[in-house]
Write a structure and sequence with these properties.
Elements: E1 12-13, H1 25-39, E2 42-45, E3 56-58, E4 63-65, H2 68-75, H3 78-94, H4 101-118, H5 122-140, E5 147-151, H6 153-156, E6 165-171, E7 182-188, E8 195-200, E9 206-211, H7 214-229, H8 233-247, H9 260-272, H10 314-328, E10 334-335, E11 344-345, H11 346-349, E12 359-360, E13 363-367, H12 375-393, H13 410-421, H14 423-427, E14 430-432, E15 438-440, H15 442-455, H16 465-483, H17 506-521, H18 534-538, H19 577-594, H20 597-603, E16 612-615, E17 629-633, H21 646-658, E18 663-669, E19 676-681, E20 687-692, H22 695-710, H23 712-727, H24 740-753, E21 775-776, E22 779-780, H25 787-793, H26 804-818, E23 824-825, E24 834-835, H27 836-839, H28 864-882, H29 897-900, H30 926-932, H31 944-961, H32 973-982, H33 1004-1014, H34 1023-1026
Length: 1033
């Protein structure tokens, strides 16, 4: 097991400290029971306000227990029994004596033989270099400026004879190979690093060609330099990698860890030894853009090796390596980092304390072992470490085939022999059955342990039967001691506290141990023999297969049910004229019900001279009546935000808004790409955000409004798409889906690709050969915005005569039947199809390009699970809107969320359990922090005129907002109630007061607020109240 949590010991106390004569019978029984619990790692807790209802703590399982009865119940659980066995195994490993010189020599020979047999030689390395040279000559015949470089295990010499050759293309990014010299040419452009696979015909070696993999090349060069400087590193890494391959834990696609992580683990061990063999060459400066690491530059100037460990044999290093990761290093507490000499805590990088954490020395944000996402696989790796260390730390005699464990070493062997002599005592122990009677417990305990081993034990099938017998005897003794509730004195047990064996005849043991040591001195290295064998290391038990997509076990990536695949769709029935008219009327109904025409007309007259302006859906022609308000703020005298401290301005703005009586939930977000302040209007429930110098978004709003003005069908389709996304709960980017802006871009892209097109590509219409420049925030925000000239230039725009209903069904069919999300990007800035490979967005499920900020993928935050949910809604929508039916007038039939989503709720596994948003954990939730402790904001003096304009603007804005039909209501309370019942049970926390156990609608504070608001309906219409903002600096 992992190291014990020492911090838990501070809160426990052992024993009562009272004289036995002064104890009552009940107290005496309690003390004896607690002594028995203490032997099983269950300790009494000191009373604390943090755990007021718990009396005991199990240190093995980190479980708090209420009383004695709960402790006895916990002892019988399979998890506790398993942890007892692992703790006992750990104690056995710690008790192993140091290896003899003959044993070290035999291990040394086994490691060297494995490295020589499976690692590449100098001749193999030259063959691989020749393959790279031939490929470079082939490519340069077509691309003269292109060059190749070797990286990966072949360059570091950590490669096996069967390893593929990693080749990186420095320039350009596209690669061509000739079929006459290479076979089995395949491409994988949807990997995180797109690659081309091919086999060199002359050598038969597999090549893996990528482009621009600079970080991997830097890491490879560093490891290769270390391998040249320390000769023992290569055989150690090769043996370690071969052991991992035999245990099948180096397969990244099946939930293992990448092969080069084992090299990092070996180097880290050599750096962390008491007498380090390798120093740390890197440091905190790695990762800065101005620094490039070249170890060759230091070769002639600095001592790159240490003399401390020169006399240590390879066999001793191998044993120390296994012991280091089995018993000494806290895998779940620290990060394996070869960049720093001191241990790197996970808290420093905010990495979770789960499983393995390995840092790439040149990609500091990357956990190399992030593919190890299953706790079962991690426990399997831990067990393989224990098995390997036990095998190599004990003498293995020649002639046993290496498959027998051999006899136990030293004291541990004698302890087990002593235990065997007393086995009868344990098997015949009488246990109180809780009803005043006695029962024979030995057989029952043995049976329980046998059942546990069938389901949970990780013992190897090929292990020594005598060892299993010893373990069964040992565990039977442990369980009898724990479960016993009789009056037997604790001194009759052969155990010391916490399950350690206590010998009755220490003098006899010392004498026997001396005899063992004398016998070991007569053993030579020729008598011992170690082999790297799969059955020895694994017992024939493979690791659990874990999918790299959904992180679940039992299947691989290719068989994952959550993988985004193209579904075979059934053909739709023929369309009728009557149904076409129904769809057409439905789209127009969406526009009439949700548009906010009066609001847009009123906004045009507001703040002509002010420094605040609206953008987004409120002005681009696609705004709902309850859409959020997007407001951009600029400061007088500053055209850009380059010389401004945006963080302080946003925090100061939040301070001003908090004093406004009509607003609440003021939340500054300064870490976003565009810093904003979010707020909510108390009476209407409308939300909004104010951003600072989001000028590019204003140009974006203007372009979308221009598209909406070209053809009325654009608006009708945009509103229908937003209603569709809202009903299916797939239109909120803060909860892991796409934003409404992304869906509008999908509508525009479809209308551009339609034959004939409904709208043109405004960014491709200009005079001359070069695109005009209109630079905003470093991006060209040009688009053609003269509508009168547009109709004169492009008279063919009127050729498409399809109705809105036909276009809506065509949109659903386009994104389910024609458009390939894996291959293409949704981009409204060009008519030509844009591939995901060109954008290097191959690892994303949905790629939607912002028309101005070309580096912004609006689908980057959508998971595969959410992608499948969105596509399911589109496929069901295609079937629903494409199958003629004549329902009652209205939207209920066509926008039934249960039909569109098959009655399922949108995935929320990435969402915070308090606010329902993504991007943070529950412990960091702003809504939770608001009640736990008040947030401290920096004070910033905003100009007086900005504060005045802001307050007047918000007051006038919300006065016009509170018009009939503008209040934010639930569309279908009954449906929402049903959804609430269908949701998975989880913690219920009120958003109003922050207390647990109820939701906002049941909150007394919220009920009182609603009553007070209802009693003063004209409160917000009083400008004096709306403007009662203290402008005190």
């Amino acid at each position: 097991m992992a190291q014990m949590n020492q911090s838990a010991e501070d809160g426990t106390e052992v024993g009562a400290g009272l004289e036995e004569g002064a104890l009552t019978e009940q107290q005496l029984g309690l003390r004896q029971a607690e002594e028995r619990l203490y032997r099983d790692y269950i300790h009494r807790l000191v009373k604390s306000p943090e755990y007021p209802n718990f009396q005991y703590l199990c240190k093995l399982c980190s479980v708090h227990i209420e009383n004695i009865q709960g402790a006895h119940k916990h002892i019988k659980e399979k998890r506790h029994k398993k942890n007892i066995m692992e703790k006992q195994e750990e104690n056995e490993l710690r008790a192993l004596p140091p290896p003899s010189p003959a044993q070290l020599k035999a291990v040394d020979a086994a490691v060297l033989d494995t490295a020589k047999q499976h690692g590449i030689s100098e001749e193999d390395f030259q063959v691989r270099l020749a393959v790279v040279s031939r490929m470079e000559e082939t490519i340069q015949q077509h691309l003269s400026a292109c060059s190749l470089r070797l990286y990966g295990s072949c360059l570091t010499r950590f490669a096996f004879k069967t390893s593929d050759i990693n080749i990186d293309v420095t320039y350009p990014s596209s690669v061509s190979v000739l079929a006459s010299e290479y076979s089995e040419v395949e491409s994988d452009f949807h990997a995180k690093v797109p690659v081309v696979f091919c086999r060199d015909i002359s050598s038969g070696l597999m090549c893996k060609v990528s482009a621009g993999n600079d970080v991997a090349c830097l890491t490879t060069n560093h490891l290769a330099a270390l391998a040249k400087l320390e000769p023992r590193l290569v055989p150690l890494v090769l043996a370690f990698r071969y052991w991992a391959r035999l245990c099948h834990i180096d397969c990244q696609a099946e939930g293992g860890i990448p092969s080069y992580s084992f090299a990092l683990m070996v180097i880290f061990f050599l750096q962390q030894r008491k007498e380090p063999i390798l120093p740390v060459y890197l440091g905190h400066w790695v990762g800065e853009s101005s620094c490039l690491y070249l170890i060759g530059a230091f070769t002639a100037k600095t001592r790159l090796t240490l003399d401390l460990g020169k006399g240590v044999s390879l066999g001793q290093l191998w044993l120390e390596l296994l012991r280091f990761y089995t018993l000494e290093f806290a895998l779940e507490e620290y990060i394996i980092s070869i960049r720093l000499r001191e241990l790197l805590s996970r808290e420093v990088k905010n990495w979770p304390r789960r499983r393995l954490a390995i840092e790439d020395p040149f990609a500091l944000k990357r956990n190399v072992a992030r593919s190890l996402n299953s706790q079962m696989v991690f426990e399997y790796i831990q067990e393989r470490f224990r098995t390997a260390y036990k095998y190599f730390a004990c003498p293995q005699f020649r002639g046993t085939g290496g498959r027998q464990r051999g006899k136990k070493c030293g004291k541990q062997d004698m302890k087990l022999e002593s235990l065997e002599k007393k086995e009868a005592v344990f098997l015949n122990t009488e246990v109180d059955d809780g009803k005043g009677g006695k029962s024979q417990s030995g057989g029952r305990v043995r049976q329980e342990l046998k059942e546990d081993e069938e389901h949970e034990s990780d013992d190897e099938d090929g292990s020594d039967p005598s060892r299993k017998e010893d373990e069964e005897t040992l565990n039977a003794a442990l369980m009898n001691m724990v479960l016993s509730e009789g009056d037997q004195p604790s001194t009759n047990t052969p155990f010391s506290p916490n399950g350690l064996l206590d010998s009755d005849n220490e003098g006899e043991e010392e004498e026997e141990e001396n005899n063992v040591l004398e016998k070991e001195a007569l053993i030579t290295s020729e008598d011992l023999h170690y082999v790297f064998d799969r059955m020895i290391f694994t017992g024939g038990k493979p690791p659990t297969v874990v999918c790299s997509i959904c992180k679940r076990d039992g299947h691989l990536k290719d068989e994952c049910p959550e993988d985004f695949k193209k579904i075979e769709l059934k053909p739709l029935p023929p369309m009728t004229d009557r149904f076409r008219d129904i769809l057409d009327g439905l789209c127009r109904l969406c526009y009439r019900m949700y548009s906010s025409v009066q609001l847009r007309l009123l906004f045009r007259g507001l703040l002509k001279e002010a420094q605040l302006c609206l953008f987004g859906s409120s002005k681009n022609g696609f705004g709902f009546r309850d859409s959020d308000l997007d407001i951009c703020m600029t400061l007088e005298g500053h055209d850009t935000a380059e010389k401004l401290n945006c963080k302080e301005i946003i925090e100061g703005l939040a301070k001003v808004l908090k004093k406004h009586t009509g607003l609440r939930n003021i939340l500054p977000i300064t870490t976003a790409k565009v810093p904003i302040v979010k707020f909510e209007h108390r009476q209407s429930g409308l939300e909004g955000d104010i951003s600072l110098y989001n000028t590019l978004a204003q140009h974006n709003t203007r372009m979308l409004a221009t598209y909406a003005a070209i053809d009325s069908r654009v608006q009708y389709l945009g509103y229908t798409m937003k209603v569709f996304a809202k009903r299916c709960d797939i239109g909120d980017a803060s909860r892991g889906s796409l934003s409404s802006y992304a869906y509008i871009l999908m509508v525009l892209y479809f209308l551009q690709q339609r034959q004939p097109p409904v709208i043109p590509v405004l960014q491709e219409i200009f005079d001359g050969k070069n695109v005009p420049q209109r630079m905003v925030d470093g991006w060209n925000a040009f688009f053609f915005d003269d509508l009168e000239e547009l109709h004169r230039r492009l008279p063919e725009l009127q050729q498409n005569k399809e109705s809105v209903g036909e276009l809506w069904l065509g949109l659903l069919r386009f994104y389910t039947e024609e458009f390939d999300f894996k291959e293409h990007v949704i981009s409204i800035r060009q008519r030509k199809r844009l591939t995901t490979f060109e954008k290097q967005w191959t690892s994303k499920c949905i790629a939607i390009e912002d028309p101005f900020d070309l580096n912004h993928n609006l689908g980057a935050g959508v998971s595969r699970k959410m992608t499948n949910f969105i596509m399911k809604a589109f496929i069901n929508g295609r079937k629903l809107f494409g199958s003629p039916f004549y329902p009652q007038p209205g939207m209920e039939y066509f926008f039934d969320s249960k039909v569109l989503t098959d009655g399922e709720l949108a995935p929320n596994d990435r969402c915070c359990r308090i606010c329902g948003k993504i991007g943070h954990y529950m412990k960091d939730c702003p809504k939770r922090r608001r009640y736990v402790g008040s947030t401290v904001y920096l004070y910033f003096d905003l100009p007086l005129n900005v504060c005045t304009h802001l307050c007047m603007y918000l007051s006038d804005l919300f006065l016009c907002v509170l018009s009939p039909g503008r209040m934010k209501k639930k569309e279908n309370d009954k449906e929402e109630d049903i959804k609430e019942e269908e949701r998975e049970p989880r913690e219920r926390r009120c958003f109003q007061c922050g207390d647990m156990g109820h939701v906002r609608r049941d909150c007394p504070e919220y009920r009182h607020l609603r009553q007070r608001t209802a009693g003063a309906p004209g409160m917000l219409r009083d400008k004096a109240i709306s403007l009662s903002v203290s402008l005190r600096g």
